[in-house]
């Protein structure tokens, strides 16, 4: 009897022949839209199988461009076009923001900025602990998928930051000051914004998990994420294009992770680890 090899995906459900159009796009017309529904997600437990699934989901995220369709290329065009526009405007945006500092804005920026580093890991852990305490498997699973998205997006962020060595606005007025890839200069660590990526990953994850059931959650989550990104520009830690790419990376990686887990649940495809 043959044993499935490690990382082999096998069909175990009656819906294994589900339309491939839905498996290869985030929102293909005619495909069920189950975003914001925790019941539509693969249910994980905090064990070895979950940690191994991070690698299969990372592979899915990295290989998605080979399966992109029209809407995906449109999104890429929007991201790259906006990035180009912001690159041209970065210096002027910095000048305007730094000349319009205000105590009230300072207070708001100081409140929201920690959501990009200190608060987000605690929120993820708190979601899991709260889910265990109130015996809510959906909340625990949302926490695990959020952590998975965070692990994958952060890995891509670290790779990007090591290759694109851009000087921070606090140290130069030249928004196009780059060093060679993998250089060790601690000043050229601006691109992309890690704070924005982290908080956008969290915002997208909770919106994907609960946005359909509670329509106010995306409004609050994305508002906090947006303000956190703006705070990094306000504090002169990042150029506006750094923040935009950090937000885009966190958003689309997290959307892909949740989509992949909905596809697994809907089709009955699971990864078998041997």
In short:
The protein has nine helices and four strands. With 274 residues, it is mainly alpha-helical.
Report the average pLDDT across residues: 85
**Rg, alpha carbons:** 20 Å
Oligomer: single chain
Biggest sheet descriptor = 2 strands, antiparallel
> What's the end-to-end separation, in Å?
14 Å
In which order are the strands of the major sheet placed?
1-4
Q: Which class of secondary structure composition applies to the elements?
A: mainly alpha
Low-confidence segments, given as residue ranges, are 1-34, 270-274
Overall shape: it is globular
How would you characterize the overall build of this protein?
With 274 residues, the chain is mainly α. It contains nine helices and four strands, in the order E-H-H-H-H-H-H-E-E-H-H-H-E. The chain has helices spanning 20-23, 48-63, 70-98, 103-112, 119-133, 137-163, 194-210, 216-234, 240-267, and strands at residues 8-11, 165-166, 178-179, 269-272. The strands form two sheets. The chain has a two-stranded antiparallel ribbon with strand order 1-4. A two-stranded antiparallel ribbon has the order 2-3. The longest helix is centred in the N-terminal third of the chain and has 29 residues, at 70-98. 34% of the residues are buried. The model is unreliable at 1-34 and 270-274 (pLDDT under 50).
């Amino acid at each position: 009897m043959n044993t499935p090899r490690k990382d082999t995906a096998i069909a175990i459900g009656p819906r294994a022949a589900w339309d491939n159009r839905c498996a290869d796009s985030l929102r293909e017309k005619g495909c069920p839209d189950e975003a914001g529904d925790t019941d539509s997600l693969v249910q994980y437990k905090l064990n070895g199988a979950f940690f191994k699934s991070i690698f299969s989901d990372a592979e899915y995220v990295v290989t998605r461009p080979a399966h992109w369709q029209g809407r995906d290329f449109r999104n890429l065009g929007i991201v790259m076009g906006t990035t180009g526009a912001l690159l041209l405007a970065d210096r002027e945006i910095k000048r305007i923001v730094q000349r319009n500092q205000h105590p009230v804005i300072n207070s708001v920026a100081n409140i929201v900025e920690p959501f990009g580093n200190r608060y987000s890991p605690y929120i993820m852990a708190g979601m899991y602990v709260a889910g265990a305490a109130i015996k809510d498997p959906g909340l625990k699973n949302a926490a695990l998928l959020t952590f998975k998205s965070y692990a994958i997006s952060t890995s891509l962020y670290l790779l990007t930051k090591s290759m694109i060595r851009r000087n921070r606005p606090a140290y130069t007025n030249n928004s196009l000051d780059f060093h060679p890839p993998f250089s060790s200069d601690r000043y050229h660590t601006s691109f992309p914004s890690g704070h924005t990526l982290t908080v956008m990953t969290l915002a997208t994850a909770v919106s994907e998990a609960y946005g359909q059931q509670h329509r106010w959650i995306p409004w609050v989550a994305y508002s906090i994420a947006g303000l956190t990104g703006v705070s990094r520009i306000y504090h002169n830690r990042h150029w506006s294009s750094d923040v935009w790419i950090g937000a885009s990376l966190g958003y689309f990686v997290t959307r892909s992770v949740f989509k992949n887990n909905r596809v697994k649940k809907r089709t009955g495809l699971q990864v078998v680890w041997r």
